[in-house]
Design brief:
alpha+beta; Jelly Rolls; 2 domains; four-stranded antiparallel sheet; about 40% helix
Length: about 210
């Protein structure tokens, strides 16, 4: 990716990077920051499809016949993003067969993972879904540099509900249950994973 072909933009916490239904004009690569990718099933129902961190690609779902983004992306923390015009990206795909092949593999892997997550969320109990949401949070955003069990960034209770296909009230109650069982500890709005093994057993992390 030629530096002269990209533009770097900064987004504040809560700012929209691109919106569902918006014309697909760019591909995005996160330089530094944290992002949620989601869709709205209705005006009041948000479903988080993916969490993204440094180096993650965004916007590729818009490369389709409709040429619009089927999802939205919002910065969870101050975030810098490298932007590549979609026309340049498509030229790269046409010109480089190996790059096109790797991009196809990336899409297939993401689709398979997304489908498996949806299946897991449908079949699991609320506790399992919340545990899986916490595991995804840990996998993508990692742990605090000084406290190796404290999530580096804990998504909000509402976002956990959106990711776990649950309600805010159920998430709050389940987090309390997990804390009572010694699996996690609630530190204000943050979460410390005290027993990752037991959390994974609940979350069915085998996939």
């Amino acid at each position: 990716m030629a530096r002269s072909q990209t533009t770097t933009l900064s987004f504040k916490t809560g700012e929209t990077i691109f919106k569902e239904g918006q014309k697909c004009e760019n591909m995005y690569l996160i330089g530094h920051g944290r992002v949620k990718v989601f869709t709205n099933f209705s005006k009041d129902v948000e479903v988080i499809l993916r969490l993204a961190n440094d180096g993650f690609a965004l916007g590729h779902r818009g490369i389709r016949k409709a040429r619009t983004y089927p999802v939205s992306a919002v910065a969870l923390t101050p975030t810098t993003v490298n932007i590549l015009p979609i026309s340049v990206f498509e030229d790269m795909l046409r010109a480089n067969a190996l790059f096109c092949y790797h991009f196809m593999q990336f899409l297939a892997e993401e689709m398979a993972r997304s489908e498996q997550l949806r299946k897991n969320f449908v079949s699991m109990s609320v506790k399992g879904r919340v545990a899986l949401a916490l595991r995804i949070n840990a996998d993508v955003f990692g742990f605090d540099a000084k406290d190796k069990k404290l999530l580096a960034h804990t998504i909000t209770r509402k976002e956990i509900a959106s990711l776990a296909n649950s309600t805010y009230e159920s998430v709050v109650r389940t987090l309390g249950d997990l804390q009572g069982e010694g699996i996690i500890a609630l530190v204000g709005k943050k979460v410390r994973i005290k027993d990752m093994g037991r959390l994974c057993a609940l979350a069915d992390c085998s996939f």
